Amino acid sequence: MRQSQLLMPTLRESPSEAEAASHQWMLRAGLIRQLAAGIYTYLPLGRRVLRKLEQIVREEMDLAGAQEVLMPAMQPAELWKESGRYEVYGPELMRLRDRHDREFTLGPTHEEVITSLVRGEVSSYRQLPLTLYQIQTKFRDEKRPRYGLLRGREFLMKDAYSFDADWEGLHRSYTSMYEAYHRIFTRCGLYFRSVEADAGSIGGEGGTHEFMALADIGEDTIAVCDSCSYAANLEKAEYGGKEQAASEESSVRDEHEAELVRHHTPNIKTIEQLSQAFELEAAAFIKTLIYAVDGKPVAVVVRGDHEVNEIKVKNKLSAAHVELADQTTAERVTGAPTGFAGPIGLQIPILVDDAVLAMESGIAGANEADYHLGNVKPLIHLSQAAAGDFRNAEAGDHCPRCEEGRLAFHRGIEVGHVFKLGTKYSEALHATYLNASGREQPFIMGCYGIGVSRLLSAVLEQHSDNNGIIWPRAIAPYQVHVVPVSVKDTVQMDLAAHITSRLSEAGVEVLMDDRDERPGVKFKDSDLIGIPLRIVIGKQAAEGIVELKTRKTGEVQQLGLEEALVFATGAEY
């Protein structure tokens, strides 16, 4: 490809709206352009990379025995209502009506559609197992699109769905996809971890793992053991070495010791303010938060130095929606303004974290303005509350698997997710097959997603420097960048054309910079677009000597023509 004919509008400065490094480089290198918030056009370089990512995904899906299909992006709302997700999915679901006033959605995912397809086409256990996948545009009405392709409203996704006759079959399908994902992300050059995760709105009855590309810009926090392979998303992360609940005997020896003490605490509302006022650590306090759980108030009680994990609360209560209650609701159920809520005397369900029950005593809100209660004995005063793990794991917590390791925290970009769905969708949509005994059984399902366009961004978060992109060779738009210093020098141009032709015949993708630009401009653009190997043709062209620069390492070497061609057709760079 001649660069003079390539639509590659580079920018010298990063646009002000681009916060993430990947977003900046994609705009500056001319890979994408924004049409609207969270909606992008892929220019030629970006599209070439995207196609290579798609090809890697296709090869590994095919190798795992999956078959490619293509499903409609526009889905009848009836399917979503049948599965029960039409209201549950929330405002991210893009909804529309046709001219006949029929409701449709623009698919953010395709569990309903694939289940509908298979229930109409597969009727016998002899047709199982079956795994189908597609690579297709998805739509989610993100409230705040940001970071370029990392959080958009329109994006490219690979979604696969497995159908098995039993749980053993699902385990095999899940394992096959799990291993394929490891191969895909390794081939793309990512530094990643597979982590235990929550199923979220997809739901399901079995395990689920997220694949996280480690990057500071990542919106997810993952807990990783420093001694074993345990890793989990913060919303799912457990911790070992949990404190044992204080015994009733150690908590109180007589009724007098169980008496509550009222403390006047005017305008002292936060844990930080309480710590200063009482000259105690945050761990000495008991924090009560009021949540709206499917519209009903629930109190969650954690230690003052801990944070509530809303996903754990949601799973404990099998709820669809969990969010902090508004101020009006909180004041109505506690009788006190914000900052003075406490667990004693509440007439709503109460969840108390294990770490609170391990406290012999603590200080909590009094459900009265400007007052807190001291000498709160959780084992005595909160004996009717539902106990469990309702807090976020923290750095330094014991690993829940090996117990020897400690948890450390990293930021991550979710690039893939695998789920064991079980019968969630097959039962809801009445998708069944006949088993060997002639009985109807619901399919046992799994689903497996990869954000292909997000993967492009994740790679750039890990593979760039101050000068621009550093593409892994497997997904680079071109493998070799041939740069003649002067297009007016016929010897240089002839040699550039010869090298380009020889490499192209050998199956190497080459971009030749035939623009009439200064050498400095060419070299800056070359570093910016990040092609793995640059061959510079300069003053020694007549002698058949060229300069090779490896983008990843910055190594520069002078080689003869044939030696340079051998190097450029290899995989060392």
From TrEMBL:
GO terms for molecular function: aminoacyl-tRNA deacylase activity; ATP binding; catalytic activity, acting on a protein; proline-tRNA ligase activity; transferase activity. Pfam families: HGTP_anticodon, tRNA-synt_2b, tRNA_edit. Its main location: cytoplasm. Keywords: Aminoacyl-tRNA synthetase, ATP-binding, Cytoplasm, Ligase, Nucleotide-binding, Protein biosynthesis. It catalyses: tRNA(Pro) + L-proline + ATP = L-prolyl-tRNA(Pro) + AMP + diphosphate. Gene3D superfamilies: Anticodon-binding domain, Bira Bifunctional Protein, Domain 2. NCBIfam families: PRK09194.1, proS_fam_II. This is Proline--tRNA ligase. It comes from Paenibacillus endophyticus.
